[in-house]
Design goal:
Chain B: It is found in: Cell membrane. Chain B: Pfam families: CstA (PF02554). The complex is a heterodimer of chains A (75) and B (692). Chain A is mainly α. Chain A has a domain at 33-67. Chain A has 3 helices and no strands. Chain A is flat, with a radius of gyration of 17 Å. The N and C termini of chain A lie far apart (37 Å). Chain B has a single domain (3-195, 258-672), classed as Amino acid/polyamine transporter I (Up-down Bundle), CATH 1.20.1740. Helices cover 71% and strands 0% of the residues of chain B. Chain B has 27 helices and no strands. Chain B has helices spanning 3-6, 11-33, 41-68, 77-80, 92-103, 107-115, 120-147, 154-162, 164-193, 197-220, 225-248, 260-276, 283-308, 332-339, 349-353, 367-390, 394-401, 404-407, 411-420, 427-436, 449-463, 469-507, 517-540, 546-574, 582-603, 609-622, 632-672. The longest helix of chain B is centred in the last third of the chain and has 41 residues, at 632-672. Chain B is globular and about 70 Å long. Chains A and B meet through helix 1, helix 2 and helix 3 of A and helix 5, helix 13, helix 15 and helix 22 of B.
Chain lengths: 75, 692
């Protein structure tokens, strides 16, 4: 968004990467899997004693959680 | 956001918004006023975009600033209760994408197609104005209320603001509504797959594909959703291609050729298995696939409409606004307003707006984009579905959507009947369309999905021509709709099972344990039986099922929307902002009037369940068979089915009336208070919370 006068191809590449990151994050969230890195950062910052799950463990836990509660999708 | 360019007070902004208003008004004028000659769909699409942009900028902002008074300096639940899992401050566009994917489903695609029997104009106007003043207001306001209440659910908010009893009454309504939704959606799939070997084969293939994906995600490459979904997509496209060979084969074709009754039983058995099995095996992988396919296909439909720019062949208004239409019975008022639910206003969204989404918003200032904007996107999907249906040959449209009781079972009879209605079509046209899409017949394929699929196939075929490609596109569209409907059925059955287990736990405690196999199997069986009953009833219904069940679904869905908007009205009054209570109040009243009128017409009068039950009961008493029933047993079944529908309609109406009384009581109490009494969480400044 902030226009710097850096080489145009670099800003284009950063923009491309940002869009890709957005797409991946959105796609995962649509399947009930929030951002893993954010969760790890949260654990490190607020619960330093807790064991950090691997992405695979994190994914399984979220997969189970998604279909437990009520609501979720539309007609 | 971009405050300088969009601010209406700056001179440049004023010119910009005036220009959008003029263009929009002109396009809308062309859509509404040009008669006798077909118009291009682009006019309709342009008018819709202009209305949405203006609605968002002015009415959405009004709701934001005046009615909800959202405050960007206030900390949201995501910030306050950040746990990295459920409550996570998330980028607003990511939340937008997630919210849209959760609200968009089969509803906005099916309703407008059915309503097209009245012409494209009534449906268009209801979608455009319904969404700006009712649908988007509901989604946005419920989201706004939930953010101020720790992301609480609709049921909890109703309990807090209206009292414990209204909360229980409304949640009971939600459970019944869910059963009807599942039955109607499953019926759409049954109608699309009846005697369609190609379609049945490809949809059946999704089961082994999903199992494969589940195993891959579990053991081979855990958590690689995108990768496995791409593999699944390739396999799905392969199964469509293979489906043609199955359809052509004299050996394999008949093995996948089923009637509605058998398909209904298969779906019931499948729904049971899918919700009892571990989620990672079948439910989750199908969910991923259907989510991505849904978004991809909606994008494809938009692209096809812009590139093909089809002419709308259906008249702007047909004579069926008088209530004599073959697709569904009932006058424009109130039946248009309950037939198009999702897309204009849908009560179901209030559950999602008070579910995951409020726990993700990093800032109150982003709620308008997600809540109001997300619903406008869904309305746009509804407009596209309407365009796809209206760009079909009207004769083909009515052949596909009229029950066989009216048009018969041969192309000659259907063509003659429909031509007499004023939509001239030849038997050859009907046969050729069926042949183009690789089906044996297109007659009486009600339910919206096949019509939309033919429309989409014709649009895509117009852009990417190719020998035999129409059939591929048609079955692609059918597959995508079936896939996400079946995912809704699986997930809904699971949710229903948990609800039932909770209720059963009140009677016998051990049944509540979701790990217990007895409780699991018993509750799943009850849940499947509930929606399965209505599905089976629809599958054997002489009038085609959709004709009977869609109004019931519409009444239930709009009833929930009315309840959600009543909650918003009560909260506005409780906050001492009575001067704005009309914003949620008028759409609430409108929906109450529509659902009660529709309910009443379904209880008494010529198009009611009562009239149908009496007609067949009289036939039984006189000892004569009334077509299309073929035996006295069938006559008895029709009578009892109509009695069940009557009870259900009466129940919904009683529920609406009860909720109106509860809401009025809450409003009366709140006006007597001299201070705000809404149950909002206290203000915490965003700046005072450590960012993490």
């Amino acid at each position: 968004m902030i226009a710097t006068h850096a080489a145009p191809h670099r800003t284009l590449r950063t923009a491309g990467r940002a869009v890709w990151k957005w797409a991946v994050q959105t796609a995962r969230l649509c399947c009930g899997v929030p951002d893993y890195d954010v969760y790890v950062r949260h654990l490190k910052q607020h619960h330093p004693g807790r064991k950090i799950p691997s992405y695979e463990e994190f994914f399984r836990e979220r997969q189970e959680a998604r279909y437990k509660g009520t609501g979720g999708r539309c007609c | 956001m971009n405050a300088t360019a969009s601010s209406p007070s700056s001179p440049a902004g004023k010119i910009l918004w005036a220009a959008i208003a003029i263009v929009g008004a002109f396009c809308l004028g062309v859509v509404a006023l040009r008669r006798g000659e077909p118009i291009n769909a682009i006019w309709l699409v342009a008018a819709a975009i202009a209305v949405f942009v203006i609605g968002y900028r002015f009415y959405g902002t009004f709701i934001n600033n005046r009615v909800l008074q959202l405050d960007p300096s206030r900390a949201t639940p995501a910030v306050l209760r950040n746990d990295g899992l459920d409550y996570v401050p998330t980028d607003k566009w990511v939340v937008f994408g997630h919210h849209f994917a959760a609200i968009a489903g089969a509803g906005p695609l099916v309703g407008p197609v059915l309503a097209a029997q009245m012409g494209y104009l009534p449906g268009t106007l209801w979608i455009l104005f319904g969404v700006v003043f009712a649908g988007a207001v509901q989604d946005f306001m419920i989201l706004g209320l939930s953010i101020r209440r720790d992301g609480r659910s609709l049921g909890n908010m109703l309990r807090d603001e209206l009292g414990p009893l209204p909360g229980i009454v409304a949640m009971f309504g939600v459970l019944v509504l869910m059963m009807i939704v599942l039955a109607v959606l499953a019926l759409v799939v049954v109608k699309a797959l009846t005697h369609s070997p190609w379609g049945t084969f490809t949809v059946a293939c999704t089961i082994p594909i999903a199992l494969l994906m589940g195993a891959y995600l579990r053991w081979f490459r855990p958590g690689r959703i995108l990768e496995v979904s791409l593999i699944g997509l390739v396999l799905l496209l392969g199964s469509i291609w293979l489906g043609k060979a199955v359809y052509d084969s004299p050996v394999w074709g008949p093995m996948f050729d089923f009637d509605a009754k058998h398909l209904a039983w298969m779906l019931i058995a499948y729904g049971f298995c899918a919700s009892v099995l571990p989620v990672w095996l079948l439910l989750a992988p199908r969910d991923y696939l259907s989510t991505f396919l849904k978004i991809g296909t909606i994008a494809l439909l938009a692209l096809a409409i812009f590139l093909a720019a089809p002419m709308l062949q259906l008249p702007a208004v047909t004579r069926y606004i008088d209530g004599t239409g073959p697709v569904f019975a009932g006058n424009l008022f109130p039946f248009l307003f309950i037939t198009i639910a999702c897309g204009a206003v849908s009560g179901w969204h209030s559950i999602i707006s008070s579910g995951t989404t409020p726990k993700l918003l990093a800032n109150e200032g982003q709620a308008q984009l997600v809540g109001y904007g997300g619903m406008l996107m869904e309305a746009f999907v509804a407009i596209m579905a309407l365009v796809a249906a209206a760009s079909l040959h009207p004769g083909v449209y009515f052949a596909m959507n009229s029950p066989s009781a009216l048009i018969g079972t041969t192309v000659e009879h259907a063509a003659t009947t429909i031509s007499q209605w004023g939509f001239v079509v030849t038997p050859d046209q009907l046969t050729q369309t069926a042949k183009d899409i690789g089906e044996n017949s297109i007659l009486s394929r009600a339910g919206g999905a096949p019509t939309l699929a033919v429309g989409m196939a014709q649009l895509l075929h117009g852009i990417i021509p190719g020998e035999g490609m129409m059939g591929f596109w048609y079955h692609y569209a059918i597959l995508f709709e079936a896939l996400f409907i079946l995912t809704t059925v699986d997930a809904g059955t699971r949710v229903g099972r948990f609800m039932i287990q909770e209720i059963a736990g009140l009677i016998h405690k051990p049944l509540q344990q979701t790990e217990s196999w007895t409780g699991n199997l018993l509750a799943t069986a009850i849940c499947v039986a509930l929606w399965g009953y209505f599905l089976y009833q629809g599958a054997v219904d002489p009038l085609g099922g959709i004709n009977t069940l869609w109004p019931l679904f519409g009444i239930a869905n709009q009833m929930l929307a009315a309840i959600a908007l009543m909650l918003c009205t009560v909260v506005v009054v409780k906050l001492k902002r009575q001067r704005y209570m009309w914003a949620p109040g008028i759409p609430a009243i409108w929906l109450v009037v529509c659902t009660l009128t529709a309910g009443w017409e379904k209880l008494s009068g010529p198009i009611s369940f009562t009239a149908a039950a009496n007609k067949y009961a009289q036939g039984i008493a006189d000892g004569k068979l009334i077509a299309p029933a073929k035996s006295v047993d069938e006559m008895h079944r029709i009578v009892s089915n109509n009695h069940v529908d009557m009870v259900l309609t009466g129940l919904f109406m009683a529920l609406v009336v009860a909720m109106v009384l509860f809401a009025l009581r809450a409003i009366a109490r709140a006006t007597q208070m001299d201070r705000p009494t809404a149950h909002e969480e206290p203000y915490v400044a965003l700046s005072s919370v450590a960012q993490s």
